[in-house]
Amino acid sequence: xxxxxxxxxxxxxxxxxxxxxxxxxxxxxxxxxxxxxxxxxxxxxxxxxxxxxxxxxxxxxxxxxxxxxxxxxxxxxxxxxxxxxxxxxxxxxxxxxxxxxxxxxxxxxxxxxxxxxxxxxxxxxxxxxxxxxxxxxxxxxxxxxxxxxxxxxxxxxxxxxxxxxxxxxxxxxxxxxxxxxxxxxxxxxxxxxxxxxxxxxxxxxxxxxxxxxxxxxxxxxxxxxxxxxxxxxxxxxxxxxxxxxxxxxxxxxxxxxxxxxxxxxxxxxxxxxxxxxxxxxxxxxxxxxxxxxxxxxxxx
Length: 300
Description:
Structural class: alpha+beta
Number of helices: 5
Strand content: 15-25%
Mean pLDDT: 78
């Protein structure tokens, strides 16, 4: 036999090929699911941290009330008033114990205990007024309570720090939940719907973009505002106003959409009913009181 003769070509089993394809699809699917799970996990972690800070702020308020009641008890010489204050301090301490035993993620219980704060503050203020009226002339008592007041100040400062941290985290969560858009395009069309580049022939603008996926954004109805500036920086075809950074801003078109957190394409139209000059036009898109993207286009 000739050793240089061509060898027969090896044939691969169809089942082996099918198995390889299925394995590749499963690997890609698992990788995608893991990325989505990890993204959701990070978003949930930030929300849990925000809830913990909120609970800590509430605990600090309860402790502040408790110390203020302690200061009142040292000032009161009226037995009947002292009994009322004792009872309210015990109630405050009981609510604090309930709060400490409540998980930060228990929204219903946290809401109930947060409502109690308003009632406690009003009752405490009424007793402070009564006690202050009774002891207004007693300078020695004010000297005795300097240490307690210092403790209250420290607790108040701690509460303010926790509140500041919570606000920073809330801003971070809010920013993560904002919509973002990409892939902007703008087309000018004549009366027959054909694309044109001359301002005098423009009868309609078509423009669109893609809202990117955001698992932390709240689903539901959104209003998309489009603001088009002409070459002279005046607003093209103003239809009304919306609020942006505390200011009323004119828009050219708006559209209602239903957003579910997934990637979504949006297309908008605007019929031209005014004379247009040639030059550079700018398109700005807004949603949820934020500018989510912009584009520039030119007409001759």
